[in-house]
Amino acid sequence: MRIANLDGRLTLLTKDGTAALDVATASRGRFGPSPAAGYGSWQSFVEWARDADLSAAAPYDQDGLGPVSPLPRQVFAVGLNYVDHTAEAGFVQPEQPMIFTKFPSCLYGPRGDVVLPGAAVDWEVELVVVIGTRAERVAARDAWSHVAGLTVGQDLSERALQLRGAPPQFSLAKSYPRFGPIGPYLTTLDDAGDPADLTLTCTLNGEVVQRGNTRDMVFDVPDLVAYLSAVCPLYPGDLIFTGTPPGVGMGRNPPRYLAPGDILESTIDTLGGMRHTCV
Question: pLDDT tens for residues 128-141?
């Protein structure tokens, strides 16, 4: 299944993603119009959605797509989760997940403009996990049963602020408005393919700047869910940005950062793609 936030309403998309069905209308009010409503009753929503009649789905404007989980309680992110990215960033590979947060106010949809607050904004394409049912002290072997699905994300980062001081401080520099775009839709696990073998690609003005695969993660999704839920309960709709492969601008010689007019595109196998213009 593909589930979207279309014009602020919970929506089902056809398998090819070209047509949309409004959930509140189709369910005759059983599920509310808020995109957060589905996560609040995930199991019953999924059961209904699997049998929903999509014959009334209609074409839609992709510019109306918003973040697939617009009101998470928590947004976790994982730093240095690909060995080659750790090396290009000049850090030592952590022995346990390196966790920081992106504040929910940074979330944004899969299309539109991103305002650059300075001259050192970097790109980081990432696989994003969306939690479906509460997870607390969950074993890795049970982690997938708590996941609603997967989506594409960009962990945009203002490096000057991030690396100011010692030690560096990550969360604030990664939480400017629109610095957490996710989308274009949530793909449930039955349609996502193998989460341990997904190719992530980021292009800048048509040039491939990142290409990696989730098989190269140091800590995979079950590891991350288990690690986080041992400390913090994970709630329906919560997000986990799982880390970025190599190819970021900071790791280049000389460094390369986003500039006004740049077109940033982020895609992951089976999960779709996003397109943003820097202004």
Answer: 999 999 999 999 99
Q: How many CB atoms lie within 10 A of CB 70?
A: 17
pLDDT in tens, 183-213: 999 999 999 999 999 999 999 999 999 999 9
- Which residues constitute the domain of residue 24? 2-60
Does residue 167 have a cis bond before it (omega within 30 degrees)?
yes
Question: Are residues 56 and 172 part of one domain?
Answer: no
* 190 and 93 within one domain: yes
Tell me, yes or no, whether 36 and 153 share the same domain. Answer: no
Closest CA to 138 of 70, 240, 46: 240
Tell me the pLDDT of the chain averaged across its residues. Answer: 97
Query: Two tokens at 185?
Result: 């839709």
pLDDT band at 91 (very low <50, low <70, confident <90, very high): confident
pTM, rounded to two decimals: 0.97
In terms of phi and psi (left: phi > 0; alpha: psi -120 to 50; beta: otherwise), the region of 205 is: left
Distance of CA 208 to the CA centre of its chain: 19
Are 141 and 244 within one domain? yes
CA 28 to chain centre: 30
| Same domain membership, residue 47 and residue 106 | no
